[in-house]
Structure formats: structure tokens, C-alpha cells
């Protein structure tokens, strides 16, 4: 992981509006598949990514509570949408809208892993989550993840939204965006 001082000089990687970033993991989050665009953007080779924990790209600006919520949902076999700041091998970063979903064995129907479908996050969504994520990280550093989770749920109550509605509204998850994720999901079933 890059040192914090190195990250201060990092720059944002501009993502394609049409190319998806895809990965599949096992049930523990170990990468089993990654597409070429994921390799290109992350700066890691396929050999470096396959077998690595997916948190190899976790940016320290991301609140732990978002991943806590993600794992809780996935373990209940529920999909989750999130705006995520990822870290490349070079120390640069990129913002994505990510749909995480459980994938099932075709015959036994037992969960066998997770699919992460990503596309460039809308600028307005990034602008909206930056102050929220900064506050959540600050709370986690001072009071822990439980306090951060309390803050997040209070924030959502003030918005009169649950997490899913908040995220879908933020990324305008309808029309083309919804069709994009639905289409990608069907391709990787």
C-alpha cells in the first residue's frame, strides 16, 4: 500500500464512459477473474491480480463502514451498489460506480463468489460522497467503525432514504445506467 504522503501527490485516472471494469472473486474476496480494462486502470498485471485479495485496490480514503455494509449484504445474498474510490498500483486513484452481486453455481445453486461490475462514477455522485466519506473516515479514526455506521444511518435518515435509494438516486440508476449493469450482469452469469 502506498504511504499517505505519496497519495497526496496522486492524480485521478480518467475512465472511459463506456468500458466496464469487471472482476469475479470467491466467497472470501480473492480475485478469480479480471478483465483487461481492470488491469489497465489498476496498473496491475493479470498475474498480480489473480489470487490477490480484492482489497489490493482499496483506497485509504474509503470508509471501512461501506465495505462492512457491502460484506453484510453479500453474505445475505443481496446485491449492493456503491460509489467507490479505488487505488491503482501507481498510487493514482479512480472513482467508480460498482454493483456487487452474488454469483451461484449453475447446478447446485449455492453461492460460489461475487461479481463486481464497475463504470465511471458520475461527477455529481463523487462530489456528493467526498464530504460524507471524509466524515466517516474521520469518525472511524477517532471512534471506530460502529460510530461511523451510526453516523451513516443518521445521515440516511436525514435524507429520508435507505442506503439503496440514496445510492441509486446519486448515480441516477435508471434508464441507460440500469440497462448497462443489467446487461453486464447477464453476460457474466
Automatic annotation (TrEMBL):
Residues 26-77 form the PAS domain. PROSITE patterns: PAS. InterPro entries: PAS, PAS-like_dom_sf, PAS_fold_3. It comes from the Bacteria. This is PAS domain-containing protein. It comes from Sulfurimonas marina.
Amino acid at each position: 500500500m502506498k504511504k499517505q504522503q505519496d497519495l497526496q501527490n496522486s492524480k485521478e485516472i480518467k475512465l472511459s464512459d463506456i468500458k466496464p471494469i469487471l472482476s469475479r472473486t470467491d466467497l472470501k474476496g480473492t480475485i478469480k477473474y479480471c478483465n483487461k480494462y481492470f488491469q489497465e486502470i489498476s496498473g496491475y498485471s493479470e498475474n498480480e491480480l489473480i489470487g490477490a485479495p480484492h482489497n489490493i485496490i482499496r483506497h485509504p480514503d474509503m470508509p471501512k463502514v461501506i465495505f462492512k455494509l457491502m460484506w453484510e449484504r453479500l453474505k445475505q445474498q443481496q446485491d449492493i451498489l456503491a460509489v467507490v474510490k479505488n487505488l491503482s498500483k501507481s498510487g493514482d486513484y479512480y472513482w467508480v460506480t460498482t454493483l456487487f452481486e452474488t454469483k451461484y453455481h449453475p447446478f447446485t445453486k449455492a453461492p460460489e463468489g461475487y461479481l463486481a461490475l464497475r463504470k465511471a462514477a458520475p461527477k455529481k455522485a463523487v462530489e456528493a460522497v467526498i464530504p460524507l466519506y471524509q466524515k466517516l473516515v474521520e469518525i472511524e479514526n477517532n471512534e471506530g467503525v460502529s460510530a461511523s455506521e451510526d453516523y451513516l444511518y443518521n445521515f440516511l435518515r436525514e435524507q429520508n432514504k435507505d442506503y439503496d435509494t440514496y445510492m441509486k438516486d446519486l448515480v441516477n440508476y435508471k434508464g441507460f445506467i440500469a440497462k448497462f449493469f443489467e446487461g453486464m450482469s447477464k453476460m457474466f452469469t
